[in-house]
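Sequence only, no structure available. Ideas?
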Amino acid sequence: MGEESSLVLHGMWASPFGKRVELALKIKGIPFEYVEEDLQNKNPSTLLKYNPVYKKVPVLVHNGNPISESLVILEYIEETWKNHGPALLPQDPYERAQLRFWADFINKQLFEASVKVVMAAGEALEKAIKDLREKLKVVEEHGVKRLLGDGGGPLANGQEVGFVDIVMWSVLGAYKIHEEVLGVKIIDEEETPGVASWLNSLIHHPLTKDILPSKDKVVGLLQYVRHRASNSSAAA
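Reply:
I predicted one. Tokens follow.
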């Protein structure tokens, strides 16, 4: 049957971490079954069984063996199907280490900052935007040349979407919808032109277009999250 004889991805439609795995499998051309998990009512037969430690999505179950945490899963996909489809990481150990470093920075620093933007309002939103832009400037000044080369693009993996591209896309791939809902500018093309160009290349890449949820669903989710955050702040 081969390596992909049984491959099931447990995810949730709004999870950027699950979308990373979906995109990686699509890049590699690996067929898989998808199971939508209800995170408000976690299934003891699937999610809690396969990820009893974190109890979160995504979980990739390969021939009955579960792998959790999105970045770990991406590396597993690359190692298991290294000769199937484009490589997600380069062969050179130093280059791989550099991409892992920036993927970690984006996964932690940019994701945390972007979540604060979504949850904030008023002066707190202004501060959150400022903090996010400061972190984007770090990527612009220290990461873009390393990741994209002197030409500034189009992708960190050359012409193909790779490991760090996937992480960047999952964190800020819907930034234009966020700007529309929040009524603020998140990405400043003049301040961080390399980041803006990179993101736009990812957003318009044919492999990413069908993976993000529809605009209506993203808008609805953002409005719901902001409403809950506003109510929590008022009750505090």
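The chain is about 55% helix and 5% strand.
Hope that gets you unstuck.
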